[in-house]
Amino acid sequence: MKITGLTILKVPPSWVWVRIDTDRGISGLGEPYLEDHPEVVIAEVKRLEPLLIGEDPTQVERLWRKMYESGNGYRGGPVKMSAISGIDMALWDITGKAYGVPVHKLLGGPYQDRIKVYRACHDEPPYTVEPGMPYRPGPLAALTGTGAGEGASAQERMARSAETLAEWGFKCLKLHFGPSDSLAVAADLEDIVACVESVRRTVGRSIDIAVDIHNTHMSRALSLVKRMEPSGLLFVEEPLPLERIDLLRRVTESTPIPIAAGERWMGKWAFREALEAGAARG
């Protein structure tokens, strides 16, 4: 079986998929997506395509290495790794279909048959992607134009959003905040904690709440996680800048709240660094 071509599929409003076709009629799908940077990842997928044409798609590890080592010594980086990631998914998809088994069988079998799903929650009305939306290479927030609730406080707007999502049936919510990375701004910490407390009062204790503070400063992260402990959070995500793996242990050891990190780490080596630094906690 040989790879015959790659096709980019642009999915509204701004998502990207790649389909890999073969001479056996088996195709695989993957998602080579980098948030808010779809077009540059598409360009990288197209750059990698000639390396794959005529190759056996079931030789997944060899092709991964071939793509990773291409580019005159420039390895890694978010654009290249996102492109490789989507292609890698599609190769595994083809391999599973070729052998007639789900991909999880090739990776050691299922660990569990159910998984908790959360819904992102912001201080704006929840939205859904409507049929017929055009594809655009911009962030979803800029496309939806949701500005309802103006005049209400951030706490009220976020609580209202959480209440709607709970009515939709979601049992876990992740609250998103973009706190400043400047030490000169402290007032927004009070607002963040107030929003979390407001949501907890609104949905009660039967719904899990996680919080994403999007890579803030160390002192701010330490302050936030400590002040949010009474709200009984499922986890706090991305407390530090993605480059500061070396400092993550100080956050994990400062709080009983589980800390989630690694969303923007590219490749296995960053995770090894985190393990070696003692940043991960079971």
Structurally, the number of domains stands at 2
Work out the helicity level: 25-40%
As residue ranges, the low-confidence spans are 140-148
Report the top-level CATH class of the largest domain: Alpha Beta
CATH homologous superfamily caption of the largest domain: Enolase-like C-terminal domain
Order the strands across the largest sheet as they lie in space. 4-5-6-7-8
Query: Which descriptor suits the 3D outline?
Result: globular
Number of helices: 10
Global Rg: 21 Å
Question: Oligomeric form of this entry?
Answer: single chain
The main sheet comes to: 5 strands, parallel
Structural class: alpha/beta
One letter per element, helices H and strands E, the order comes to EEEHHHHEHHEHEHEHEH
| Average pLDDT figure | 89
CATH architecture of the largest domain: Alpha-Beta Barrel
- What is the CATH topology assignment of the largest domain? TIM Barrel
Instruction: Indicate the proportion of strand residues.
Output: 5-15%
Number of strands: 8
Q: How would you sum up this structure, described in words?
A:
The structure is a single chain. The strands form 2 sheets. Strands 4-5-6-7-8 form a 5-stranded parallel sheet, covered by helices on one side. A 3-stranded antiparallel sheet has the order 1-2-3. It has helices at 38-52, 60-68, 78-99, 103-106, 140-144, 154-168, 187-203, 218-228, 248-252, 268-276; strands at 3-11, 15-22, 27-30, 119-121, 172-176, 208-212, 236-237, 259-260. The model is unreliable at 140-148 (pLDDT under 50). The longest helix is centred in the N-terminal third of the chain and has 22 residues, at 78-99. It folds into 2 domains: 3-106, Enolase-like, N-terminal domain (Enolase-like, domain 1); 119-276, TIM Barrel (Alpha-Beta Barrel). Helix 2 packs antiparallel against helix 3 (78-99) and helix 6 (154-168) runs parallel beside helix 7 (187-203). It is an alpha/beta fold and 282 residues long. The protein is globular. Helix 8 (218-228) links the parallel strand 6 and strand 7 (236-237).
